[in-house]
Amino acid sequence: MRRRRLLSLLLTDLERGTHSVLEHGYTSRVVLPHGLPPPTHRQALRRGPRGREYRDVEHEDLGVIVELDGSRWHDDARAADSDARRDLDDLAAGQVVVRLRHPQVYGDPCGTAVRLGAVFRVRGWTGRLRRCGPTCSVAP
């Protein structure tokens, strides 16, 4: 079957809870190839002032939430205001919120991994980043 490997990766990612191309890219281009810790939860449901809210990626053990903002749901002022309110609520609860968009995931996945690694380390992660290839910006 043509593109069998890609299809297999996509199905595995869907099984893990991925809901978008950006979430798939985050997992396949940033997290897995660089050895970042796997999330505790994906699409974590919470009750907010407006009802159900979902956190894209949660590292509960580190107190880190990664929000992956695609243009479909995050492209107007109202959405930005809602995101800012949620971020403030999470920060008030002691969690760090990282918001990533397409340029961080697809344009600079290695640099994003380095920065996330630093955030995770400050929050207690003891793992090590790894290079994904010869041009990767992760220090050897």
Note down, in words, how this protein is organized:
The chain has about 140 residues and is an alpha+beta fold. It has a single domain (about 5-120), classed as Endonuclease, Chain A. The chain has 5 helices and 4 strands; from the N terminus they run H-H-E-E-E-H-E-H-H. It has a 4-stranded mixed sheet, with helices on both faces. Strand 3 (about 65-70), helix 3 (about 75-90) and strand 4 (about 95-100) form a beta-alpha-beta unit. Helix 2 packs across helix 5 (about 110-120). The longest helix has 16 residues, at about 75-90. The model has no long low-confidence stretch (mean pLDDT about 85).
Number of separate structural domains: 1
Pick out the low-confidence regions.
none
Order of helices and strands: HHEEEHEHH
Biggest sheet, spatial arrangement of strands? 1-2-3-4
Indicate the CATH topology: Endonuclease, Chain A
Determine the strand fraction and express it as a percent band: 15-25%
Assign an overall shape. globular
Structural class: alpha+beta
The number of helical elements comes to 5
